[in-house]
Write a sequence for this structure.
């Protein structure tokens, strides 16, 4: 029998048939259906990287992961032992993500209905996009004897990029999903506290299970052609730039960072690796005039992860201005690679950084003062913060530990709450 393979995101994936053969081994596995990421192989953001690592570090072969993948066809693949199933979604604007989650959930339920699974299936939904539909789907999951786990993400309804009606939808959707969940898996203690307080009338079951990271150095050498060429192209020098990595959106406080950096007397540069946002760029330049300051350098995006890790490693310091969300992946990556980290002083960031970082506020002068103070730090002081940062990652955020905890959680919840009708 010929086996077909396809290359997706640079990875070779085995193409599967439209259905699975119902072998005894397959039916006895613990089936876990993951909905809400754009899929694997990962090429986008936090949730995609989480699912990628979940299957990459899988040690429990009794679990079979089914991962929804946003695509323009309905093919199925095997990837790192998981089943990646495509979900074809029409281009319908902002509602596309909602359609995607609902369509993916329909496929998962249909799969379970067609199979005589021996263990209660686990449905793990990432983010709270489909609240208005959740009560009906909860009944279908209960009929299957399944368990519904939800990751509430990080206050999506607070993000300024959304219009007021969309933000209102996110808040209502969050409430309805919290009400339906058997368990809410929060990747931030602050998010868990928020869920328990905001929705205490539902007495939600919650658990804290963090996002992950690693502190392995980049495979690129300091003098690698790839890194040196990037520095030259951007007009930067190793160890002589402050770094920002993240989306170019208001809640990441890019405006405050640029304003305060321009106010400081540092001779170092500010390298901003961000998504393109021409409108915000023009608005900020009109307000701040940063294009006239030779120290401000917008570098564009960097998708090569080893190069990005090397850029982080060779930064003088990392600036993190995220004010919305839970455990932010870019912050973990910074702590795992950059020695000196200057973080916006909000609960989410304090929770992660603890005493391994320095903190600033949005008050005028706070960050510019901290930048100037950082410029005066000795190598010994900077190295000390670097050791603390990497220890923080190794102690609390290692991927292999996180994925092991998830494996235990899926088995535990299936056994405790699920019920397969005999």
């Amino acid at each position: 029998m010929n086996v077909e393979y396809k290359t997706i995101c640079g990875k070779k994936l085995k193409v599967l048939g439209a259905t699975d053969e119902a072998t005894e081994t397959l039916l006895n596995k613990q089936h876990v259906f993951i909905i809400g990421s754009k899929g694997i192989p990962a090429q986008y953001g936090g949730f995609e990287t989480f699912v990628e690592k979940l299957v990459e570090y899988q040690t429990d072969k009794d679990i079979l992961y089914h991962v929804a993948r946003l695509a323009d066809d309905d093919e199925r693949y095997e990837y790192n032992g998981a089943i990646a199933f495509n979900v074809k979604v029409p281009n319908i604007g902002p509602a596309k993500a909602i359609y995607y989650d609902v369509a993916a959930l329909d496929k998962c339920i249909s799969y379970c209905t067609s199979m005589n699974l021996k263990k209660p299936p686990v449905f793990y939904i990432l983010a709270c996009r489909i609240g208005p539909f959740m009560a009906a789907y909860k009944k279908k999951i209960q009929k299957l004897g399944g368990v519904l786990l939800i990751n509430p993400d990080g206050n999506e309804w607070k993000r300024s990029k959304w219009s007021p009606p969309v933000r209102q939808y996110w808040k209502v959707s969050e409430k309805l999903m919290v009400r339906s969940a058997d368990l809410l898996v929060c990747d931030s203690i602050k998010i868990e506290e928020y869920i328990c307080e905001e929705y205490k009338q539902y007495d939600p079951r919650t658990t804290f299970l963090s996002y992950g990271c690693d502190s392995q150095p980049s495979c690129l050498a300091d003098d690698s052609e790839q890194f040196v060429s990037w520095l030259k192209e951007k007009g930067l020098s190793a160890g002589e730039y402050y770094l920002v990595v993240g989306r170019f959106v208001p809640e990441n406080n890019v405006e405050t960072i640029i304003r305060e950096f321009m106010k400081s007397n540092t001779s170092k540069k500010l390298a901003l690796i961000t998504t393109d946002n021409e409108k915000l760029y023009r608005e900020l330049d009109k307000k701040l005039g940063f294009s006239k300051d030779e120290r401000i350098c917008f570098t564009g995006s960097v998708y090569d992860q080893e190069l990005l890790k090397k850029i982080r490693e060779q930064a003088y310091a990392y600036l993190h201005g995220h004010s919305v969300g839970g455990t932010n992946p870019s912050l973990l990556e910074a702590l795992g690679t950059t020695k000196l980290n200057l973080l916006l002083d909000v609960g989410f960031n304090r929770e992660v950084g603890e005493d391994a970082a320095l903190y600033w506020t949005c008050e005028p002068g706070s960050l510019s003062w901290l930048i100037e103070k950082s410029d005066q730090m000795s190598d010994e002081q900077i190295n000390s913060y670097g050791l603390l940062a990497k220890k923080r990652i190794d102690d609390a955020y290692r991927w292999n530990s996180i994925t092991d905890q998830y494996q235990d959680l899926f088995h535990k919840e299936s056994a405790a709450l699920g019920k397969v009708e005999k």
In short: Residues 5-212+400-417 form a domain with the Rossmann fold fold (CATH 3.40.50.2000). The chain has two domains: 5-212+400-417, 225-396. DSSP finds 15 helices and 16 strands in the chain.
